[in-house]
Amino acid sequence: MKSISNAVLIGAGNVAWNLGIALQKVGIRFVGVCNRSKDHGEPLAQQLQAPFFEDIRQVPANADIYLLALSDSAIESVSEQLPENEGIVVHHSGSMSIDSLAKKHKRHGVFYCLQTFKKEAPIDFSQLPIMLQATSDSDLELLKNLALQLSPNVRETSDLERSNLHVAAVFACNFSNYLYAVAYQFAKDNNMDFNLLVPLIQKTAMQISGDSDPFLKQTGPAARCDMAVIEKHLGMLQNDPKKQALYRYLTECILNHYKN
Asked: 232 and 148 in one domain?
């Protein structure tokens, strides 16, 4: 079976930078990088030693794979602008269906890495979960062989399974980071050093294991049903109704869990 050896990368955001560099390291040759902004796309093209295209209609039509690292809202419309080709067209989205690529491209699929990305902080792909879908067994095998060059943690998932994982990821990553930001702002407003909380944050993350229910690790006044401390904290937040409401809601969620 022919393997994937060259690619076109569409997009120049956080995912595109990380995925492009990771694939380049395992020997994938980029024959094009396309992005609507030259200022963002050209530096990535230079990094990947690939030609840059502002007009998606001009990208090479003979690549093995077309990687769409785009916002969910852009995937369908951008994919329809791709030139006719014989490669596999894939998107990198946790929530978009594989069918979002079906209008124009017979060979299409999903190549989704479950991680949060920043282009200034390169990701180690060696244990990263990679979720795959394809319209044929042969294309799925091609995507699997490509993914295994990055990580041994590769699996086929359905649209529903991937969407469910994406919801769980929002809770585990995006919402938790928002709470770190709330804690940071509270510490700053009260002239405290947020760095004092970092060891606690790291310990909390490190004790989570896939074999254990995180509720078994829950600590704090709500887990102890310590109403005196809870009321004191709510009083301390009385001048910040938004933080007070957030504290009250999360406390009630924890209290309700342990009451049950």
From this structure: no
Task: Find the radius of gyration of the CA atoms of the chain.
Answer: 22
The size of the chain, in residues, is 260
Residue 222 lies in a domain: yes
Written as one letter, the residue type at 217 is K
* CA–CA separation, 200 and 207 (whole Å): 11
Shared domain check, 144 and 24: yes
Amino acid (1-letter code) at residue 183: A
pLDDT per position as a tens digit, 75-132: 999 999 999 999 999 999 999 999 999 999 999 999 999 999 998 888 899 989 999 9
Q: What is the pLDDT of residues 202-250, one digit of tens each?
A: 999 988 877 788 988 899 999 999 999 999 999 999 999 999 999 999 9
- Looking only at the bridges linking them, the beta strands covering 65-68 and 130-134 are unpaired
CB 85 within 8 A of CB 62: yes
State which of 109, 125, 157 marks the end of a domain.
Answer: 157
Q: Is residue 1 part of a domain?
A: no
Q: Are strands 65-68 and 88-91 parallel, antiparallel or unpaired?
A: parallel
CATH code where residue 251 lies: 1.10.1040.20
Torsion over CA: 241, 246, 247, 252 (sign): positive
Does residue 177 sit in the same domain as residue 247?
A: yes
Of the residues 117, 133, 157, the one at which a domain ends: 157
Side-chain-side CA neighbours of 158 within 13 Å: the count stands at 3
The DSSP code for 4 is: P
